[in-house]
Recover the amino acids of this structure.
């Protein structure tokens, strides 16, 4: 029998979350962001559930090829553009749209020999200070692109740094709108946080939801999934493979980091940091056993964790353990809660599930 750990990708939740993004986007078209192998869910597993999107946005040419191989004939956007000149050949062959965020990418386009002009998204650095042209250089970059026969339509985009927090988006959208106000072309501004929190406050033809499509919350813990009407699209589950009964003073695991204050029954679950469960989770991290909320105790090991069975006295060998997502009985454990206990974000947990963990869809 294989080790009883499994990732389950919930198709109905993916469809629900995409519909939620479309409703929040008002009249804007929706990119389904499937970078990082669809945030760890698998492009091939999510594709059918995201067919209702207006386009797919991603980073890697390999991922773009996979989406085309699945039969998608609509728009595909490379969010970071091309990384070397020969990438443009594949853009031409696959009909990819791509971001342009620096002079080197314009130079590549100018030297590219093609019979079919390409659709590009010119990116402004409106305050994120990662990729994009500074506002004072944006119009000159647009002028240069517009003069190239290799370029067809130029769309305009930026990325928001504080859409999930109290600073908001006005300091960036004001710059973006002022600089681009008389330039032609479609606009793309909103990520998940802006789509949910600032609907209607940006002039945009496209929104780019990512984490919300998978049931993650961009502004957790201020809001949770229920607040935004999102459903978990990934469940990481395993089973108990052992039970121990401790007495007062007994310790657990490496470093003896947890000491029982009295009689305590613990379960040993087949999951650890080699599976992608975060090693930085500590005593108190929430876990579901047979659908009942309890806590992890002690350290995370490479292949095992230990959980407090006090709230579930009936649990034993073979009992279901839900690390995040939805238990068989219907109870849910938001991935964002687990991520917070590990000092990280749900995005990382989704993307970090190890290859040795089997994945299934429902």
């Amino acid at each position: 029998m294989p080790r009883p750990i499994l990732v389950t990708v919930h198709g109905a939740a993916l469809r629900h979350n995409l519909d939620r993004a479309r409703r929040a986007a008002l009249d804007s078209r929706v990119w389904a962001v499937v970078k990082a192998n669809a945030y760890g869910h698998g492009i091939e597993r999510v594709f059918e559930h995201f067919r209702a999107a207006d386009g797919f946005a991603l980073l890697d040419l390999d991922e773009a090829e996979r989406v085309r191989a699945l039969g998608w004939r609509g728009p595909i956007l490379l969010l970071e553009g091309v990384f070397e000149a020969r990438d443009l050949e594949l853009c031409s062959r696959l009909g990819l749209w791509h971001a342009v965020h620096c002079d080197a990418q314009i130079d590549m386009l100018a030297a590219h020999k093609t019979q079919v002009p390409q659709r590009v998204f010119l990116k402004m650095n409106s305050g994120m200070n990662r990729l994009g042209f500074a506002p004072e250089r944006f119009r000159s970059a647009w002028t240069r692109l517009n003069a190239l026969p290799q370029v067809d339509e130029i769309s305009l985009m930026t990325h928001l740094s504080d859409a999930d927090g109290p600073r908001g988006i006005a300091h960036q959208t004001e710059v973006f709108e002022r600089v681009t106000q008389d330039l032609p072309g479609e606009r793309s501004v909103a990520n998940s946080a802006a789509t949910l929190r600032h609907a209607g406050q940006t002039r945009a033809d496209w929104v780019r939801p990512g984490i919300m499509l998978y049931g993650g919350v961009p502004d957790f813990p201020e809001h949770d999934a229920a607040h935004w009407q999102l459903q978990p699209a990934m469940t990481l589950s395993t089973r108990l493979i052992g039970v121990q009964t401790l007495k007062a003073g007994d310790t657990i695991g490496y470093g003896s980091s947890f000491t029982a204050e009295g009689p305590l029954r613990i379960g040993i679950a087949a999951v650890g940091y080699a599976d992608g469960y975060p090693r930085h989770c500590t005593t108190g991290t929430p876990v579901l056993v047979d659908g009942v909320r309890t806590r992890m105790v002690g350290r995370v090991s490479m292949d095992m964790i230990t959980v407090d069975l006090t709230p579930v006295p009936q649990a034993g060998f073979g009992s279901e353990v839900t690390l995040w997502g939805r238990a068989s009985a219907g109870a849910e454990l938001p991935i964002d809660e687990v991520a917070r206990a590990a000092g990280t974000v749900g995005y990382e947990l989704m993307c970090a599930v190890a290859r040795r963990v089997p994945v299934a869809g429902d």
Observations:
- The chain has twelve helices and 19 strands.
- The longest strand covers residues 234-246.
- The mean pLDDT is 96.
